[in-house]
Specification:
The complex is a heterodimer of chains A (about 325) and B (about 675). In chain A, about 35% of the residues lie in helices and about 20% in strands. Chain A has about 325 residues and is of the alpha/beta class. Chain A is globular and about 65 Å long. In chain B, a hairpin with a 2-residue loop joins strand 5 and strand 6. The chains are: A alpha/beta (about 325), B alpha+beta (about 675). Chains A and B meet through helix 2, strand 3 and helix 3 of A and helix 3 and strand 6 of B.
């Protein structure tokens, strides 16, 4: 008898529900990221996707975000204490879908709707020191457990200053694993967003790594997905804490590796002079520090749609739509 | 960030079309409380004197406090400092987490709530002021306005023991006003002492009051209520409106009330009972109201107490608010507690509502609610005894609600008190026969058990013999002999009951006729010195019997036969028969004739039958004059059935014989 070779691990079961939860430290840019989603879709009409609110509150929030960022040049109000739930839907068209008939099939463009049940919690909820003591932490863990997708935020600027990203992840993910996957890995899909790419030190790091590509229309730089992990590994070497080196092993330990994708993102993007409408490497800072901070010019989100669309498609496939 | 967010002036965005908005924006129509009554600020714990400007009777109450926010360059919100009283940082944190209302477009905003004691009962009321630090460092209490380029939403949280607040019936606005200028600087550690005025709820015009009444009623359904379209008002005006809504409810409900002048439309799992927001939420999140739009609360059968509350409020009169404020016993917003709170509403409630509440309490075996309703009904009866029309109305409602039916599972004394008050309220005293019949209808049968005991209470009298007899003789507690003795002891003349029977027999219900007639005749026989003469004088009661049992010859005959037997000591001779028919005033009814005929002694004794008579075939129906149409029809049916049965038997026998003959013929033929 030939010994059996160990096969691949059994596929993890589908996550319990359809939602997508945002996870990250406070001030990591979760709310700004969500707020920029609509703008990002409008900036890239070629993608063929649009965003719509599924209830009155979510629609009003979408309108409010748009008004704050593009009209008032302000960042949206941060989420404090209570989790906010945005029910939005991505609506788009998929060309060339086979449609079967008795004589065979024909290809048609199919209109689809992907429901996004986005939960934005306060960063304090994932703070490691009092995870079991607060209702907001409990709410966050429950929300994550119910979600199919997680958008995980890593703020390299804050990490260089404070080095607390691992603390914010470890407690929550450990609790989540004990609840949702006591003996294995979590079934969730994870979009790991390295945020605030527009910040000067982060942009320069990417430049130094020579991993940048440039948008054909505005010339704005971005980091393509295939270099995102490498970029992240470089960034954590700049962390103020040694713990940051454990983030990647923690993720591999918690989730199936093929379900994690890395994105280098920016909610506001780089400053594009409206007169020239092109990226200027000598003048690109869009974030104006202040009390409160403001947005200097137009909002040109970078890699904001991609993680949401990726997770949204997965969630929709699971829901059978 | 949008920069500083000043409170919106009322006039700026109030749509002119809405009467409610003008109610709030016009000077005289807005809250008119004399704000000089409010103490302007707290004093440290050491200073016990009331601050200047306080009313003479103002007393100091301890206030525990906490400041929630962010230190510069320290990530995350937390309790920055708090008082060292009965509540700790964890308690304050729990309150802030529980009643968090999400992202706010404008600041300041106000949230109110409560903190339970160790047993889960209400202990503290809390007011949270959500705000930015003042731009003027002298007025900011050492707080920075922003951290890491973000404005900080601070929460100043003030907690007062409910008992202290209830003593003054203070409003949330009172508390906020008293603490508005206390910035909670870092050097403060002790609880504060604040003087509060006695209750003077804000006053609004009729339109706003009507809307507030609807909100108050809906809150009693235990479902959260949220209001859209009030963004144009300053948060403090929304707080006053919340105060006004709560002043329309028993003060004790504040002990477990929570509300916010603003909640995010996308915030999840809000723990607020009343809040203002800007978008409709999911149905399960509460009842949605639009500011300034008339509300017709849809109340189900389960919301009966709420309907009573609405009705009470309509009839509450000018003193209603003050009376509500005196109801400081803590209540929760649960169906049971709401029911209790409404049962204890001050002032007179419409009896109709009280009766419905009583029925609900009896159905659920809720002793306190039943007791409260009984007390209310008793007061109503004493202070405002109903007239005949009123009694009739209550009787109909008692009947409809089944209040006089048995109520198993409740304390016997409580049930008796229910019956007593209902009898007083809905039935005449002394009780007439009509009243007795109504009682039977309401109780679903003759009064029994506790109800009968109440009817027999010495305080209750009977207007006539018939109801007296029917109640006393039921349940077999007393024998006829005892009842007769009782009547004699009361000095009731021998003929009185019979006279009443003769007079009223036509309107006595069929099922009551036999007992009242029989008892009255027996009483005559026992109580009269010359009963036979009396019976003769009364014509052997032939017309009374005919009226009591019309068409029932047998029943009539049995009773007349009995009377004649009593009058003549057995069978009648020819002479006695002649004497009977010669009586003046005698009405010889067919039943009487039959009775006489049966009692008439034959000239010679008939031979005793030696054996059982042969069973004879049924005779065809006779149509004698004495037979009732019903009896005739029955006999016809029996006869026809018997004849037809016989024909069938004969037919069957014939067929069998025929078959047998055929078989024999066939056998012969084959043979």
């Amino acid at each position: 008898m030939t010994p059996r070779t160990p096969g691949p691990p059994p596929p993890a079961g589908p996550p319990p529900t359809r939602g997508i939860t945002m996870l990250g430290a406070s001030e990591a840019g979760k709310t700004s990221f969500l707020a920029a989603l609509q703008i990002a879709l409008l900036r890239q009409p070629d993608l063929g996707w649009s965003l719509t609110g599924d209830d009155q509150g979510s629609t009003l929030a979408m309108i409010g975000f748009m008004d704050a960022m593009s009209n008032q040049h302000a960042f949206p109000q941060p989420t404090v204490i209570r989790h906010e739930n945005y029910r939005w839907s991505l609506i788009g068209e998929i060309p060339g879908v086979r449609e079967w008939h008795w004589w065979g099939f024909r290809r048609r463009t199919r209109r689809i709707r992907i429901s996004l049940d986005l939960v934005d919690g306060p960063g304090e909820a994932s703070r490691g020191s009092n995870l079991l003591a607060t209702t907001e932490s409990e709410e966050l863990v429950n929300s994550l457990a119910r979600s199919a997708g997680i958008v995980l935020f890593f703020d390299p600027v804050l990490e260089a200053e404070r080095g607390h990203a691992f603390q914010h992840l470890y407690g929550v993910l450990t609790l989540l694993r004990s609840q949702a996957a006591p003996h294995g890995k979590l079934p969730h899909f994870v979009a790991f967003c390295i945020n605030k790419f527009d910040a000067v030190p982060i942009f320069r790091s990417a430049q130094a790594l020579r991993i940048l590509q440039y948008d054909e229309e505005t010339g704005a730089p971005y980091v393509p997905g295939e270099y995102a992990l490498e970029f992240f590994e470089r960034l954590i070497t700049r962390s103020r804490s040694d713990d940051a080196s454990m983030i990647m092993p923690l993720l591999r330990q918690t989730f199936h590796e093929d379900r994690i994708r890395f994105f280098v993102t920016s909610a506001i993007g780089f400053y594009i002079d409206p007169a020239i409408r092109e990226f200027d490497p000598a003048d690109y800072q869009n974030h104006i520090p202040g009390k409160p901070a403001r947005i200097r010019g137009g909002v040109y989100p970078i890699n904001v749609i991609e993680p949401v669309l990726w997770l949204g498609r997965i969630v929709a496939r699971m829901a059978g739509s | 960030m949008a920069g500083q967010r000043p409170p919106l002036p009322i006039e700026r965005s109030a749509p002119p079309a809405s009467p409610y908005l003008s109610d709030l924006s016009d000077g005289p129509a807005g809250p008119t409380r004399d704000e000089r009554l409010i103490l302007t600020g707290p004093v440290p714990a050491g200073g016990r004197a009331a601050p200047a400007g306080a009313p003479a009777d103002a007393q100091l109450v301890p206030v525990e406090w906490a400041l929630w926010g962010k230190e510069p360059d320290v990530p995350g919100y937390r309790i920055m400092r708090c008082s060292s009283g009965g509540l700790g940082a964890a308690d304050f944190h729990r309150f802030i987490s529980r009643y968090a209302s999400g992202v706010k477009e404008t600041l300041p905003q106000y949230t109110v709530g409560w903190i339970p004691d160790g047993n889960g009962g209400p202990e503290y009321l809390a007011v949270a002021i959500h705000e930015l630090a003042d731009k003027d460092p002298a007025r900011s209490g050492g707080r920075v306005r922003a951290s890491r380029d973000r404005e900080i939403e601070y929460i100043r949280l003030f907690c007062v023991r409910y008992a202290d607040l209830a003593r003054h019936r203070a409003t949330y606005y009172d508390l906020v006003e008293a603490l508005r200028d206390t910035q909670l600087p870092a050097q403060l550690a002790e609880p504060l002492q604040v003087g509060l005025p006695d209750l003077d709820p804000p006053h609004f015009t009729a339109a706003v009051c009507g809307f507030a009444e609807s909100v108050a009623a809906l809150l009693l359904t235990s479902r959260p209520v949220y209001i859209l379209g009030a963004e144009g008002f300053a948060a403090v005006d929304r707080l006053r409106f919340i105060d006004y809504v709560m002043s329309l409810l028993p003060y004790g409900l504040r002990s477990t009330f929570s509300a916010s002048t603003w909640a995010s439309a996308t915030a999840r799992d809000l723990k607020l009972r009343l809040f203002f927001t800007n978008a409709r939420r999911a149905t399960e999140d509460g009842t949605c109201l639009h500011w300034g739009q008339p509300v017709a609360p849809e109340l189900t059968a389960a919301d009966l107490p709420v309907r009573h509350y609405v009705s009470w409020l309509e009839h509450g009169g000018s003193n209603a608010l003050a009376e509500l404020a005196d109801q400081t016993k803590p209540f929760r917003f649960t169906a049971d507690d709401v029911r209790k709170a409404i049962a204890e509403l001050p002032h007179d409630r419409p009896v109709k509502d009280v009766l419905e509440g009583l029925a609900d309490g009896l159905r659920r075996r809720d002793q306190p609610v039943v007791a409260a309703a009984v007390k209310r009904l008793r007061n109503q009866w004493r202070n405002n005894p109903p007239d005949a029309a009123g009694r009739l109305g209550f009787r109909q409602q008692v009947d409809r609600l089944g209040l006089l039916r048995p109520h198993p599972g409740l304390n016997q004394r409580t049930v008796q008190s229910v019956y007593r008050v209902l009898l007083n309220l809905a039935f005449e005293n002394p009780m007439t026969y009509t009243g007795y019949c109504d009682l039977v209808d309401c109780a679903g049968g003759p009064p029994s058990g506790a109800l009968r005991q109440e009817v027999l209470d010495p305080d209750r009298k009977f207007a006539a013999y018939i109801p007296w007899l029917l109640v006393w003789s039921s349940e077999g507690e007393f024998s006829d002999q005892e009842l007769r003795d009782n009547l004699r002891e009361q000095g009731i003349a021998a003929t009185d009951p019979l006279r009443e029977v003769q007079r009223d027999i036509g309107r006595v219900r069929k099922e009551h006729r036999a007992p009242v007639y029989d008892f009255a005749v027996n009483y005559l026989r026992v109580a009269s010195p010359s009963p036979r003469a009396e019976l003769r004088r009364l014509g052997y009661l032939t017309t009374t019997v005919d009226a009591a049992f019309p068409g029932d010859l047998k029943t009539q005959r049995i009773r007349l036969e009995d009377t004649l037997r009593f009058a003549y000591d057995g069978l009648l001779s020819d002479a006695q028969v002649r004497e009977i028919y010669a009586q003046p005033g005698l009405t010889a009814t067919p039943a009487f004739n039959a009775a006489v005929e049966r009692l008439h002694r034959p000239p010679e004794e008939a031979p005793k039958p030696s054996r059982r008579p042969k069973r004879r075939p049924p005779e065809p129906p006779e149509s004698g004059p004495e037979q009732s149409p019903r009896l005739r029809a029955r006999r016809d049916r029996e006869w026809v059935f018997t004849v037809r049965s016989g024909q069938v038997v004969v037919g069957l026998a014939g067929i069998i014989v025929l078959i047998a003959v055929v078989i024999v013929v066939l056998l012969l033929h084959l043979g």
